[in-house]
Amino acid sequence: MHKIGIINHKGGVGKSTLTGNLGAFLNKSKKKVILIDMDPQASLTMSLGFKPDNIDKNIAEMMTNIIENKPFDIRDYILRNEEDILLIPSGQELTKIELLLHQEIGREYILKKALKQLNDFSFDFILVDPPPFISLITVNILSYVEQALIPISPDFLSYKAFDILSDSLNNIRNKTNSQLEIIGIVFNFADLRTFHAKDVMDITKKTLGDDIYIFKSIIRAHTGIKEAQIKGQSILTYDPKSIGSKDYENFVNEFLEVVNSGKE
Ligand SMILES: Nc1ncnc2c1ncn2[C@@H]1O[C@H](COP(=O)(O)OP(=O)(O)OP(=O)(O)O)[C@@H](O)[C@H]1O
Ligand SMILES: [Mg+2]
């Protein structure tokens, strides 16, 4: 079982888009996958065709159960969309959890406790989509996952953002999750006409370390990817022959090779 966080503290680099589409393509490859939306803005939940306001049983309620010591069955929180993608949805109540967490003992591990029941269902992949800000919610995610996949958008590149990300990963390794490993970096929104691949890779390696894997497959900017989300679909269902689908297909093949070559 791979517990993976799609991590980058910078907003708008494509974390939720990557989580949803990676989930769809892994599903197609017959992998057993579940997605966890941890952003109060619930973009992932919406991009899978759900309306967060109509859902009570979300990740925030589940974490409240842990905080209040109430028993629950995790199956009541799992939604299945029209494409057969499994999701634990989010909602804006998650902002209240952030406040509650501050006064909790063991506050870094509330998500880990909440998701413990997933261990009984033999998932191949658990993918967690974080919010775009550093918070106790992000610390909970980084203390739960075993691996991080980092989407980067070359247009949004900045040394500062890399420094912050690198500090935060090191901090987590030192304090709550020494096993956390980085699967690699995937470039999203890459425009091949203006994309100075070598410069970007050099900056990346310099800041995050030489041994970090950089995916050869890149995901180009493609409007179909956005249109699909508006319809509540993955690019695979919305337009299977599009550039977006091809890029994701290549990326997911490489992703499977990389994760399977590492330890299970
Ligand atoms: N390869 C792509 N081509 C075109 N549009 C994309 C692509 N990837 C993401 N987008 C669009 O860019 C916007 C930001 O993407 P997304 O919401 O996935 O980023 P995020 O990192 O999750 O943002 P946040 O930090 O706010 O959670 C969305 O409107 C999405 O549809
Ligand atoms: Mg997002």
Description:
By secondary structure, the chain is of the alpha/beta class. The protein has one domain (2-261): Rossmann fold (3-Layer(aba) Sandwich), CATH 3.40.50.300. It is built from eleven helices and eight strands. The chain has helices at 15-28, 43-47, 59-67, 94-101, 110-114, 136-144, 159-175, 197-208, 223-230, 235-238, 243-261, and strands spanning 2-6, 33-37, 79-80, 86-88, 125-129, 147-152, 181-190, 219-220. It has an eight-stranded mixed sheet with strand order 3-4-2-5-1-6-7-8, with helices on both faces. The longest helix has 19 residues, at 243-261. It is globular and about 55 Å long. The model has no long low-confidence stretch (mean pLDDT 90).
Give a brief rundown of this model.
The chain has eleven helices and eight strands. With 264 residues, the chain is α/β, with parallel strands linked by helices. Residues 11-17, 39, 43, 132, 188-189, 219, 221-222, 225-226, 229 line the site of adenosine-5'-triphosphate.
First-residue to last-residue Cα separation: 7 Å
Name of the top-level CATH class:
Alpha Beta
What's the name of the CATH homologous superfamily?
A: P-loop containing nucleotide triphosphate hydrolases
Tell me the strand order in the biggest sheet.
3-4-2-5-1-6-7-8
What composes the largest sheet?
Answer: 8 strands, mixed
Helix content: 40-55%
Question: Which regions are unreliable across 5 or more consecutive residues at pLDDT < 50?
Answer: none
At CATH level 3, the topology is Rossmann fold
User: What pattern of helices and strands is seen along the backbone?
Assistant: EHEHHEEHHEHEHEHEHHH
Tally of individual domains: 1
> Which kinds of small molecule does this entry bind, naming each only once?
adenosine-5'-triphosphate, magnesium ion
The CATH architecture term is 3-Layer(aba) Sandwich
- Looking at the structure, what is the overall shape? globular
